Model the fold of this input.
Amino acid sequence: MNTFLAFGREHVERHFRKTGQSVYMLLKRHVREKVRGASGGALPKRRNSKIFLDLDTDDDLNSEDYEYEDEAKLVIFPDHYEIALPNIEELPALVTIACDAVLSSKSPYRKQDPDTWENELPVSKYANNLTQLDNGVRIPPSGWKCARCDLRENLWLNLTDGSVLCGKWFFDSSGGNGHALEHYRDMGYPLAVKLGTITPDGADVYSFQEEEPVLDPYLAKHLAHFGIDMLHMHGTENGLRDNDIKPRVSEWEVIQESGTKLKPMYGPGYTGLKNLGNSCYLSSVMQAIFSIPEFQRAYVGNLPRIFDYSPLDPTQDFNTQMTKLGHGLLSGQYSKPPVKSELIEQVMKEEHKPQQNGISPRMFKAFVSKSHPEFSSNRQQDAQEFFLHLVNLVERNRIGSENPSDVFRFLVEERIQCCQTRKVRYMERVDYLMQLPVAMEAATNKDELIAYELTRREAEANRRPLPELVRAKIPFSACLQAFSEPENVDDFWSSALQAKSAGVKTSRFASFPEYLVVQIKKFTFGLDWVPKKFDVSIDMPDLLDINHLRARGLQPGEEELPDISPPIVIPDDSKDRLMNQLIDPSDIDESSVMQLAEMGFPLEACRKAVYFTGNMGAEVAFNWIIVHMEEPDFAEPLTMPGFGGAASAGASVFGATGLDNQPPEEIVAIITSMGFQRNQAIQALRATNNNLERALDWIFSHPEFEEDSDFVIEMENNANANIISEAKPEGPRVKDGSGTYELFAFISHMGTSTMSGHYVCHIKKEGRWVIYNDHKVCASERPPKDLGYMYFYRRIPS
Done:
């Protein structure tokens, strides 16, 4: 009753011991089967049958057979003294007022129900009479770039003249150079739509004049003016277009195994997740994630420690929420088989507790999606994008040196060759999933597809029923071959020619992950801007061997491209700003730095990239990183001759790092305040070039560290001692091994695009396949392995 945090019975004692808070309110809802008289009619209502808690009722219960009764008490710890509520006589007035306020308050999750923020946006006053110039502009479905700079992200289409420009300061917190806003100030055209958000249900529209996100009731008409044909895309209840329902029915039936009688599964690891309204993408990913032992051990295995050391507000702690969800899925407490009627009478007497229908991930979804413009909405999302978002959160919130997402991480070797000089460059990058293209040209049933297409068109023209769907059959080997083939590099700058030239890129595995996630690239846009999905059948193997895709590095006879940086082309309107940025390193754009750091690059390198490209955005800085990442001082702190020392990653916060690599006292104090020894802090900082985050990682990864006071004192007294500081920065953490895998899970999608439809997950447990369809968990009879979207493979020990 002090923090207004809620706990289950098994955790309230832990909170009391941790905080000393002794007054709690016990809220309970009883579900009772109605007692009927001899004639079959219901007996008169019992006393105190009032429902006063704002809780969801169970839709599976017939209200004619069951009744609800809410109960509230104050419980005083540690004696568990109970005071029934309401109790005006015994309780102080302030306590009574607080209790009444809690009991009458609305559930905070009402805010996450379908009437969310997009329905609360105002209609723009400019939408009705918006002027659109007849200038012949047509917007392609992809390949957009800002008309004033090279940015290819956070692009906005002005609905008056069709200009595509980068944004800044918008409600989704994306970065950019602000050219869309500058264009409005120059021309006065008020409305813009964000490219990449356009779906049959609408898009993100911003009004510069009104300075807020708005609704455009005539958006389809305004988009059609620029060739984006959305008029015929009327969404139906299941997210499909009307003329797509019949061809897609088989997909929904096959993936959900609708034609078979599935046996429900119960017990640990067989708990479903309730659908909160288009949350199936989250449920499918989390079921697959918590079927991996490393995630089970990191969170559920550490439950007592994580809960005991969680912050005072555990609702805002990622590790606590992951552990809570994992425990719910794996404990079996929320997946118990229905009890026979005689056991109900013996054990539960007059109370009947209905069968559990999965757990609700409301609190978890609210936390992991906060501040994210897409996941925080109730719209359907891409499961692959959420998977990467989750991996990013795991990386940023890892517990000490333990990081379960290491099982997904692998290194990709990219070989880029200049077609004119035949010289090559080898680079490595970090990735977490393998994206396989759909090789439609390799379909083995082309004659059937052609015949089906002719029959379908004829049926549509004559308004006859559509024929049964014929799905393209694609060999997995063809998709794997398409992945390994060279691809053209756009805007390739050859350092050998010091000019733009044709270039090709091939990708190979520099390391193989412990768990390989394979995404089939099924989604694209048609020329009419209608989202398309390749409805294909791919013979995904149960056993996968990709050892032949192992990178080989520079080969005999190959000549490397010279290590020369391409010239940085600076737009005229950014030149003055660039000169200003080169004056003071403390003004580095931290948002761009963090965008690059989240890709896996060293923080010091990200700062240098943003600095040397004049705060022109993450994409320009990314190009700088690609060119300079093999330089020996790539991850070293930024040092500018004109500023008297190093402008390190912590310069703006902790003060500049001295040339003698003596750790700043401010950083040392932060580490020692966490309970570590001073000599540990100093040695860790020296070993990581005074990088706070990596220093903490170093401490956790060196538990065998023994205090050597003489060594530390000598190092502190010797300002020029830099033996340890010359150590190379540690590379990405990978768990390399054999490239032989077996399939253990896959996520399937039903619908026409990632913005609609439904996700289902199949996982192989205890030797048999199990289907996880929201709250329903059943033994799978015919797992549709050929129709999946994301596949999860585990390494086979060699």
